[in-house]
Design a protein that fits this description.
356 residues, 72% helix, globular, mainly alpha, 14 helices
């Protein structure tokens, strides 16, 4: 991780944003199709990262349910998560776990825009939730893999196999059944929810490009550079939305010691989840991350059943089985795709191949 700063030169005058978004910046030999970065990582490594990502996700979900409870201040919670990531990454930087890359003004601008995208995505999701039912919001979020494929097809000209497309169908439809319920939405709510889905996918793809494209920042450096900006923006939103004033009114003597401990634990778990999420995005790819988001919804329902006695209907259970089966199918297709691309003669696209 620390070798990034030593091997990257940032002195050229090219438009950095164009480097991040334009696939033509990476010309390939005609006879050797490009192997995307996620296909250069060993299967064991990828599965390890995905397993840790799910573990962090589940741990934070259980902790929030059992310890933190209902903390009705989403912007303050976002600020806590971003602030925890800033402090955690800075501590790792001081311990020499990674080094900072010297960036140009244009490159720093890209990261500022990325942090704004992060904040706007949260704001859109928060506003839309007040205009649609939770089941409708969940079924809309389940379409993230579809939009990820569209972005890669239209923007990066990446072509997937027919089996990959087919494997995504049960992943999306299964989550739709698993979260089936009373669907309610206003026209504005529908538009904002759809916009939130698109922004969430763009954020996931942009995160991957920052770590695997022209900038090639490490996950920890990306998180360190983005988190303070996201923290400041979340605090501003908390002030403008009245959350901070409401929190002060409800806690005139300040948060209790129990609340402080609960928030500190939440911040620590959120930091671990953010590090895991960024690292997994780099090694597994943005499309796989959107599939993981769908599986996380099913796992959350399963956790509710196992730990909290949540009741679900037959269609919900059937949907979870379909989604999990689709995820297994998608995983097998990806493994075969990796093997096929590695077997192509000289088919290395953006760096050294890592053998399984």
């Amino acid at each position: 991780m620390a070798s990034h700063g030593a091997r990257k030169e940032k002195g050229d005058d090219r438009d950095i944003e164009a480097q991040l978004l334009d696939p033509r910046q990476y010309p390939q030999p005609p006879a050797s199709p490009r192997i995307d970065s996620e296909y250069q990582v060993s299967s064991l490594t990828k599965l390890s990262y995905l397993g840790l990502y799910f573990l962090c996700n589940i741990s934070l979900t259980i902790y929030n349910k059992l310890i933190l409870g209902k903390f009705g201040y989403p912007w303050l919670l976002t600020a806590l998560h971003a602030g925890s990531a800033s402090v955690g990454c800075y501590c790792l930087l001081m311990r020499g776990q990674f080094t900072l890359t010297k960036l140009s003004y244009q490159q720093n601008t890209v990261l500022v825009l990325f942090s704004i995208l992060f904040t706007v995505n949260i704001a859109t999701s928060n506003v839309s939730l007040a205009m649609v039912s939770i089941p409708f919001h969940q079924i809309m979020r389940s379409t993230c893999p579809v939009f990820a494929v569209l972005i890669y097809r239209l923007r990066y000209k990446r072509v997937y196999s027919s089996e990959t497309y087919l494997s995504l169908i049960p992943v999306v439809l299964g989550v739709g059944l698993a979260t089936y319920g009373d669907y309610y939405f206003t026209t504005t709510g529908f538009v904002l929810t759809l916009l939130g889905v698109i922004l969430a996918v763009i954020k996931t793809v942009a995160t991957n490009r920052i770590m695997t494209g022209a900038l090639a920042l490490s996950p920890l450096e990306t998180l360190l550079r983005m988190s303070p900006l996201a923290f400041a923006q979340a605090v501003v939103c908390a002030i403008l939305s009245g959350e901070l004033s409401e929190f002060r009114r409800n806690n005139p003597e300040g948060p209790s010691r129990m609340m402080l401990f609960a928030l500190a634990g939440n911040g620590l778990l959120a930091f671990l989840l953010n590090v895991s999420s960024f690292s997994t995005n780099k090694v597994a790819g943005a499309l796989t991350m959107t599939v993981c988001g769908n599986i996380k919804q099913c796992l959350t329902v399963l956790l509710g059943i196992a730990l909290f006695g949540v009741k679900v209907g037959f269609l919900n259970g059937l949907g979870m089985a379909i989604a999990l089966g689709g995820a297994a199918w998608y995983s097998m297709v990806e493994l075969r795709s990796k093997g096929a691309k590695k077997a192509s003669p000289g088919g290395i696209g953006s760096g050294p191949q890592v053998k399984s």
